[in-house]
Amino acid sequence: MARRFPPLTERQVEVLQWISDGCPDGVWADFTYKRTSYALAERGLAEVDRRRGSWSARTTSGGEHYLSHGAYRTDPIVAATRPSQAHATTSSKQGTTRNGRYEVDAVELIADLQRAEDGAITVTDPAASVRAGYRSALSQAVNTGLVPDGYKLTYTGRDRGDLVIRLLPHDNEPPAEALPPIRIPESLRGAADAVVHLKAAPELLAVSNDMRPRALRILAGIAGECTGRGWTFAQRPDGEPTFQITVTEVEFVFCLFEEIERRDVPIAEELDGAKYEWQRVRSSVQQVHSGRLALRLGERYSTITWADRKRWTLDDKLPQMFEHLRTTAVDVLAARERQARDLEERTRAWEKAVESARKAYVAQVNRDQLHEQLADRDSAVRMRAYAADLEASRGGEADRGVLVEWVEWIRAEADRVDPLLHPKRLGKRTPPEVRSTDLEPFMPRGMSPWRPPG
After folding, report:
1. In Å, how far from its chain's centre is CA 274?
2. What is the pLDDT of residues 42-61, one digit of tens each?
3. How confident is the model at residue 398, as a pLDDT?
4. Which SS3 state, helix, strand or coil, does residue 256 take?
């Protein structure tokens, strides 16, 4: 069934512009741009070549038109390239298991939602690990701007039942208010101590000398905004570039750097040896600073980057960066509160289980004592009856003395084991000490008496 593609997200426009620039090196911290490129190719805005063990991409005329006008060339109605995913059980096509964790590709998930006729995907009663993988992908899609403009991402079935994910257009919702710009000072006068330290430590800023003044002014602007919001701007405690921001006990690690690109550069020795301006000098492809500043949040594979591009500068993206920190800090603190409440509830349940196990152990001790006394009482009664039978027996006179001695001993043994003749043995017992080993058989499954949940 035919349908209309939604406008590109900011991330998709950024990747499309990068493809149009010739795919320069050093722009991306990971390989998620490839998945975005495939989504652009499906819309006819780019062509991707993965043959012969290499990867390359170029924009189509439609892609260049979108970069110039911010819209599709004819805003065409395009047929979905794959059948609807609505109400289908999702398989490993969207997710993979790595190191025991189920991971879902957020870019591919959004692409599948866009291809679905009603913008919905149903995962039938997934396992807890699969459900968690989808929730993580949904969070990544929202935080990294993968959700198309004018759309919202919702889902039901967070903890049980079918997981239904929907990409729906906003219904008459007022446009979001523009975020106020972040003031970038003209100089470093009055800059925060951490900025002054960064100025004195060039190794903590991976930028060229030409870009260093601007980079420091951006840092001064970020530090000033943090002060105004009551946040903390400081050097990273590990000594790595570049700084960290603390929002209500939530720490965010940043790196400000200049992107690297591959470019034809004249060979220095030949350039120095040239005597005339018209003299030909050979060049070689080298990795050089691009003049584009980028700000990366996070480390390893969990990163978000804001950077200079043809349509905007890093300064323009700082309000979005601060808004991301604000909302993320709120989510992290809420998650911490939930975890604290959950730990408190699990601790109370553990304490209750330990107390119940203690009572069950004491009951079992007395239950065992009761059965022992019943057995001893029964033995005493039987022994006395047997002694009486022996006395009534007609044994030979020669054995009479031996028999009398034996009867007396049996009756003494009956008196020894009979609990009714030993009042101190009667009554409920309370063990003076109860060990964790004693409680272990009486604990609920999954709980240990040795330690509380942590």
Report:
1. 57
2. 788 888 887 656 788 888 88
3. 52
4. strand
